[in-house]
């Protein structure tokens, strides 16, 4: 008997993956952009605003710095001539330190105006105002920043608040210690400790001057004050 030949099977079509052509990719991208148009425009606007804001801020701050320095020149001349009222309030034409500090406080010159204003107010006996301006002053300069701390301490000591003075004299003495100014800050710190009836700490502070800054002019005074306290203790 003849063998039956198998029936021919019909091959079913196989679904081929769609190949992405450059034209198709471009169409998809364009479609994506159209569907997300607001998102793209919003992001672009944010970038433009950010870049524009940076340039405007730099231009603005440079102009503010220039203006502040111009006003500071006259105010400092009055300060150095000991015309403190004109230095602080201006002369009717030029701004004084108080206005410069208020309007240009974000600039270097404006910050320096806080320092000068604090010193002038301290000289006038306006201790609370002096403290406010000196606390608003900040600088990376090792001399001025430590000096500002010490002046705040002076103002508190004038107000008969030795505990507060101690805090700022410590800041002054510990800020970039050096043989030129640190001994003076330590001497003030010792005196503040004495006023606060903390004689042991005062003696320790005088010892720091005697031991660490023996060549300083403050050493003689520190020895005298230490001896006096030890005599009281004995």
Structure summary, number of beta strands: 0
Structural class: mainly alpha
* Envelope shape: elongated
Report the C-alpha radius of gyration, rounded: 36 Å
Main sheet record: none
Helix content: over 70%
**Which residue ranges are poorly predicted, with pLDDT under 50 across at least 5 consecutive positions?**
1-24, 52-57
By DSSP (H or I, 4+ residues per run), the number of helices equals 11
Element order: H for helix, E for strand: HHHHHHHHHHH
Distance between the termini: 139 Å
Strand content: under 5%
Overall mean pLDDT score?
A: 83
Tag the structure with descriptive keywords.
mainly alpha, 234 residues
Q: How does this model look, in words?
A:
The structure is a single chain. By secondary structure, the protein is mostly helical. It is built from eleven helices and no strands. It has helices at about 20-35, 35-80, 85-90, 95-105, 110-125, 125-135, 140-160, 160-175, 180-195, 200-210, 220-234. Helix 2 (about 35-80) runs parallel beside helix 5. The longest helix is centred in the N-terminal third of the chain and has 44 residues, at about 35-80. It starts with about 20 loop residues before the first helix and ends with a helix. Residues about 1-25 and about 50-55 have low confidence and may be disordered.
């Amino acid at each position: 008997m003849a063998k039956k030949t198998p029936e021919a099977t019909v091959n079913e079509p196989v679904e081929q993956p769609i190949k992405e052509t450059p034209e198709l990719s471009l169409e998809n991208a364009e479609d994506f952009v159209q569907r997300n148009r607001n998102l793209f425009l919003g992001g672009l606007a944010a970038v433009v605003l950010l870049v524009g804001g940076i340039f405007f801020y730099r231009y603005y701050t440079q102009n503010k710095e220039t203006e502040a320095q111009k006003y500071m020149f006259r105010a400092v001349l009055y300060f150095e001539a000991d015309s403190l009222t004109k230095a602080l309030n201006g002369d009717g034409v030029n701004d004084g330190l108080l206005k410069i500090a208020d309007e240009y406080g974000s600039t270097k010159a404006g910050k320096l105006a806080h320092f000068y204003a604090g010193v002038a107010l301290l000289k006038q006996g306006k201790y609370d105002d002096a403290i406010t301006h000196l606390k608003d002053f900040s600088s990376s300069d090792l001399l001025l920043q430590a000096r500002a701390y010490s002046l705040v301490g002076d103002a508190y000591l004038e107000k008969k608040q030795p505990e507060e003075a101690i805090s700022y004299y410590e800041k002054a003495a510990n800020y970039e210690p050096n043989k030129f100014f640190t001994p003076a800050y330590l001497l003030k710190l010792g005196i503040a400790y004495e006023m606060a009836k903390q004689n042991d700490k005062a003696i320790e502070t005088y010892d720091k001057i005697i031991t660490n800054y023996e060549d300083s002019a403050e050493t003689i005074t520190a020895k005298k004050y230490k001896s006096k306290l030890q005599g009281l203790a004995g």
